[in-house]
Amino acid sequence: MDAITPLLSDPAAWAALITLIVMEVVLGIDNLIFISILSNKLPEHQRSKARRVGISLALIMRLGLLSTIAFIVTLTQPVFSLPWQGPLNSHGEPSFELQFSWRDLILIAGGLFLVWKATTEIHEKTAPADGHGVMDTGGRMVANFGAAIFQILLLDLVFSIDSILTAVGMTEHLPIMVTAVLVAVLAMMLAADPLANFIHNNPTVVMLALGFLLMIGAVLIADGFGVHVPKGYIYAAMAFSALVEGLNMLARRAAKRRAGGGTDPTLH
Question: How far apart are the C-alpha atoms of 57 and 82, rounded to whole Å?
């Protein structure tokens, strides 16, 4: 409590808290899209439970990582390096090396998993069923609840580490980090069901969301290799794509009305 009281009267602390909350909520969009797509593959009575469990695991993981903040910071220290066969210096050696930290390796592994998962989902939705596995009424493969939670847990770990390292880079006050994480995860919890239902009821949005995951996976891999793409560009592209899709949905609804067929049922 003694550490919190001075922060309450510090304008800089409040500014850091607001900024960090916004950053954490934005970073949570990636996680929430993945959870929504994966949970929608489950039987309907398990979907909401899977989303609650997945987001709860994200909260537990982030709070747990904050409790080991000193260790998390060390994840950015290089653990090995690879020579880059580029232009040679005056000594006939590579001019620089690729250095990898545990954070880099985790981001690369998470990015590869996201690319694989998004590619698999896109293939499943564009290719005819091959008869393997159990299919639901929509013709999609039904995921096992335990397998879905395990995949959510893997991505929770990647996004949680990225989230906590972002928090560490913005403030040194642990109470501010904890508050921002709690608010962001609460926002995820409130938005989970509406977002998942919207994605489920609008098939074209599913493909757009999978495209987002594919792009996010590629960015994570690039980040792991030291190529830092500003996240503002990524979210601006996602927002523009969502706007275009929204306009398409409005156009389809207007076309339905002009044809006398009522509103497009996929918009509800």
Answer: 35
